[in-house]
Design brief:
Number of domains: 1
Helix content: over 70%
Distance between the termini: 27 Å
Number of helices: 7
């Protein structure tokens, strides 16, 4: 049963996602530079955390390949997300980003070698119907929407590379 705390967490996450899209539009540097600086800050923060916790920076070669692959996929995700905000607007970016569950439903079975569940297909069709209603068949922001969907479709790909993290 969902509690009030669960709903507050959900609303906070939605706020953060929308705030990220708005900041991506308001910050004037190009998307590539913005993703680079975000990555640099995250790397410094994680490095500081590991040093404070007296952790180990060593990674075996197999895990390093997975981490670099995941980093590449995540960078494409953020580049697509911020580019969608620049080409369209924040709401188009977030609607495209909301298709992540649809992409997960179709791409996860491929990466995990399992069958597609019928309920996932039905819910995917509901998502597509909802998108048609939201956009009212106005395709003036279709490029931005495609970029946002590209960002959303990267999530299951990165999760399949690092299932243990």
């Amino acid at each position: 049963m969902a509690t009030t705390t669960d709903y507050l967490k959900l609303h906070f996450i939605v706020f953060l996602w929308s705030f990220t899209a708005i900041l991506g539009i308001l910050i004037t540097i190009p998307s590539v530079e913005m993703v680079f600086y975000r990555t640099l800050l995250a790397t410094l923060g994680m490095g500081a955390y590991i040093i404070i916790r007296r952790g180990n920076f060593r990674v075996n070669p197999a895990d390093l390949i997975k981490l670099v692959g995941t980093g590449f996929i995540v960078s494409i995700h953020w580049l697509s997300f911020f580019a969608a905000g620049r080409v369209g607007n924040a709401s188009v970016s977030l609607v495209g980003f909301a298709t992540a569950s649809l992409w997960t439903a179709f791409l996860e079975p491929l990466s995990q070698s399992r069958r597609v569940r019928p309920i996932e297909v039905i819910l995917g069709l509901v998502v597509i119907g909802g998108l048609a209603i939201i956009f009212s068949f106005d395709f003036s922001t279709s490029w931005a929407f495609c970029l946002a969907c590209s960002a959303a479709s990267r999530r299951p790909s990165s999760q399949s590379l690092t299932p243990n993290w």
